[in-house]
Amino acid sequence: HGDVSAKFCSRRSADALRPLPPRLQSPDVFATAGTTICDNRISIWSSGDLGNAGLNGEYHGEPRLLCDIQHNGDVMDMQFLDQERIVVASSTGTVTIFRHHQNNQTLSANHRWEKAHYHVDQDTSCGGAACTGVVCSNPEIVTVGEDGRINLFRADQKDAVRTIDNADSSTLHAVTFLRTTEILTVNSIGQLKIWDLRHQRNEPSQIFSLAGDRVPLHCVDRHPNQQHIVATGGQDGMLSIWDIRQGTMPVSLLNAHEAEMWEVHFHPSDPDHLFTCSEDGSLWHWDASTNVSEKPSFLHQGGRSTAYLSHSTINQSVVSAWLSNDPTKDRMEITNLIPNQTLSVNSLDVLGPCLVYGTDTEAIYVNRQLFA
Amino acid sequence: MGGAGPGAADEHRPVTVVPGAVPRRQLCFAWGPAEVLVCETLFGRAGTGEGAPSTSRVFVVRRDQDIYIQTLRKLFNESHGIFMGLQRSEEELAGKSRKAQLVQVSKNYRSVIRACMEDMHQAAISTRDPALQGQYSTQVSILSAMELIWNLCEILFVEAAAAGPLLLRLLDWVRLHVCDVDSMVREVLSSENPSKHKLFWNLGNTQTLTELELKWQHWHEECQRYLQDGTFASNPHMESICKILLGDEDAILEKKELMTTWYHFLVTRLLYSHPTVKPMELRFYAQSSMDLFLGGESSPEPLDMILMAAFEFEMHQVIKECSIVLSNWWFVAHLTDLLDHCKLLQSHNLYFGSNMREFLLLEYASGLFSHHSLWQLGVDYFDHCPQYGRVYLELHIERIPLSTEQKALKVLRICEQRQMHEQVRSICKIMAMKALRNNRLGSALSWSIRAKDAAFATLISDRFLKDYCERGCFSDLDLIDNLGPSMLLSDRLTFLGKYREFHRLYGEKRFPEAARLLLTLMTAHIAPCSFWMTLLTDALPLLEQKEVIFSAEQTYELMRCLEDLTSPNPGSAPFQDDDVETTKVEMLRLALARNLARVIVKEGTVEGS
After folding, report:
1. Is the Nucleus keyword given for this protein (chain A) (predicted)?
2. Predicted-assembly ipTM surpassing the 0.85 threshold
3. Which tens digit of pLDDT belongs to each residue from B522-548?
4. Which of A28, A267, B171, B495 could link A48 by a cystine bridge, Cβ 3.0 to 4.6 Å?
5. Which of A8, A132, A259 sits opposite B413 (nearest CB)?
């Protein structure tokens, strides 16, 4: 999987990472959140410095800090709104848009929604409720929080466009867009809900849940091309793949991690690849692409554990590899990308050939040759 | 109470003034895991009741400043990885390979120290705040001293270099930390007969000790001859070099200003007079070197004492001195652990029972727990303290502030992995109570499920039922409708789920099923007695339906339930005897009687054509 350069970020612990979409002929850039002695900071790094390229084009340098800015409260989630602006969800319940000025490499707070999430009464509440998830689709921003509230913001508007109070009686852990007007949320009683933002009713249009114990779900992601395919991960480390067109049960349940799965991401341009990271300190790469035999990835050297799961057939070119239950044909390959796991991997992001992830040992790792 | 740097001697403990404390008041204190709570008392200086009653404040005085210094976090994080690697490493490897492994671990630790020094140095030169700059610079020198000491310990204890390689290592050691040795070496090499000197420098591994000694002797004698012959008489400079090469102490001492420290002097001395020095002989040369070098002008500093203890192979002394001088447990904890793995420390039992290694690791790890993210490292350290680690962990982990749910989840995961059930229950209860207070009933339930806390689940269900009675409808239907198997956690929760199901069936007009369910709730005692009246009232609309729903059997059952409820039973709570209730009861009796009449007729009628 190519060279991993570890930047040990002594001043940072990474809670959420979102690489900027790489622009032509400019270095890859990514954002991180971290804590210093007394405050938290949002930082922008460049990982794409030229030079220091080894014989095989491997990257040996370390990411370079471009700029940073102070942030109030722990960063629970972040997402880029566009090339320059990033939306940050705070444990204080505030949602902030930061703008990255590339000409002079500074960050500034562009807009802030204070107490977007709060408990009981907005006026008397001393601490807000943590905002646990944010998702963007320029210019719309949707946030969810520990208060069970869903907010819809527009980047240029001071007040929330729409707020669904008490959308959920438990904590909402993550949100993502299903379609332009529909969102998906997951909560701490193991439910996946679809909300249609066009409707004024404060009820989900559909509720899915796993059979058995109501294991909390922590993350959700939708297949980039086939919008009915959704992946969720939960407290038991299990990866669930859902087809939301049919039924209320997942299509497949894959035993993955030994502890909470914190994030799941389909690769945005190569969605046969899925990535999950967990409290157990591992980061798994799930490869459901059909030509497994051509990939050299299973010839890695040590420290990698690979497992095989059977799945799709070659004929089903239209149906995604993720949905098939046919055990007879090609297999899915799963690789752990971290050789020496110690503490939790809290967050990951992937774009193009670049993967970044952050751990509880306050380190950020960048892998720039994911499919090499 | 503040930590002293390496420059301060034992007696000069700096006094910390608590800012804001009234000067004439006596202070009382209590130790915490990493800090002291200090409180103003009413008593004046003399101990008499001078102080007037006024507001008393509590101060938190922290000892471990280092935790809060930025770049040291890198030290803590990286060394954690090395520590864990060491604990997990192959114990079965014996002899040379094990030693090589341990030496590598030691080198890894040192490279982390050096990396931090580098970062700290960068921070010092890039900051504009002079106070901060001073702080960073101090840290750089402390780290440098730490690396110096560790390196020496690595040579003497971990690698246990034997005579021959020992001097090479010591040379490297000095060279690494003091750069001026090279100037002398250059001088020598540029003189006549460099080849003869080259021979001397070739103290490679290929030569045995005796070969080395012979070669050295030969070379030494040649040098001596040159001196005696007066070959260098015309050149006093060369002459002094020759004397140095012969190990003439006075000659070397003359060059004192080139050597910054007595251990530099020591190694130089050894290089020219006793290159094949044995480890056990070091102590004598060290002591005399220090005496000669300092010459009675200055007294040895703590760093000097530590190094001397190392040369004397007094490991415990080294650790003790370092503990006193350094303000953080990091160094002694990790060094002692490494030495313990080298099987060099006898179980030196301290008076309260645990051994030295464990004691130091416990202290270090406890300090980590006062930090909002480094505590996770502390957990692993406690895991590797066999005697008291678990107890310490249990105490510390319950006191971590749970600012977000995610942090609580991490703490819970750690507790569950170690079967710390008490702590799991306690933390879940805290989170559930918080959620309940914020009216997040679903969250509260989710925490109860995690802890398998039936009592709390009952509490939550009662809350729901109370809400229902007050409002006439259920809140959080998404939760109650989707309880699944967790419904069985507590009876009350089961009742809640079933009761909601009854309402659903009624809403879907599936009256017979609804009726059956309602009755079961009472007869199977799933419903609490307090709720029976509500249930019976819910039965009214079913009784009033055009079509007969309840069978005769069922109607008799209902009647019995009503009688059980209304008749004063010995031991049960007295029935509410107000107007509303009486009216309700009357209406129920009437409805039941009517239903009974209708159903008897219906059941008695023969369905004919």
Report:
1. yes
2. no
3. 888 888 888 888 888 888 888 888 888
4. A28
5. A259
